[in-house]
Amino acid sequence: MSLGQIAGPARTRTVHEYVLKSLRDAIMDGRLSGGTHLVQSELASQLDVSITPVREALRDLATEGLVVFDPHRGALVRSLDLAEVRELYELRTALEPLMVRRIMGSISPEQLSRADDLRRQMERLDDLSTWVELNRQFHACFSGPGEGSRLSSILSGLRDSAAAYVSMSLSASPERIAESNAEHAQLVKLYQAQDVEGVVALTLQHLHTTLSTIEEAHERGLL
Fold first, then answer.
1. What is each CA distance from 192 to 143, 183, 205, 209, in whole angstroms?
2. Mean pLDDT, consecutive 10-residue segments, the chain of 223 residues?
3. N or C: which end of the chain has fewer CB within 10 A?
């Protein structure tokens, strides 16, 4: 199977970083579509690297949820599982408001400054894979200082699992990036104002819109 041109940016980074970004970008922009069999030797040849960094990159992408390992076929690009997406967002819709109410009184100026810096970086980006990673970091800012609770751990896992689907939705509907950037800016302001109900309402709106975008893209045959 031809994998198309997946070579990434100029190799100004480590071989592992180069391979990881090249594959991540190719998955997120659709050059490597859902269900594609990722043959390590073919990828290594196309990227002009050894198999070792390809193997390591595929493991990283599996951790990110972009790649799955089938016991018979090996590594595959993750396909959209609409039932899983809906469950992820159903759980986040139930748990994110609980986290907001738990941390509002203890969230630090440093956390808010970090979130504001991340959302400013995102506004300047035109690289989807980097935007998705910063988006994950942005939402992770809204946990209590040193938060090690079970709730924090569960939400972290849900957010990481959702990241792959966020990238799919934005690939299909890139106009959502600007809308999300605006929502992020408003979210930071609401946290700064200690507006619990405002944060909860915007968080739920943000989640609902992302899920709706994924569902609509699926209905249009884009995912």
1. 14, 14, 19, 23
2. 56 83 81 88 94 94 85 86 91 95 90 95 87 87 70 85 77 86 96 96 93 85 69
3. N
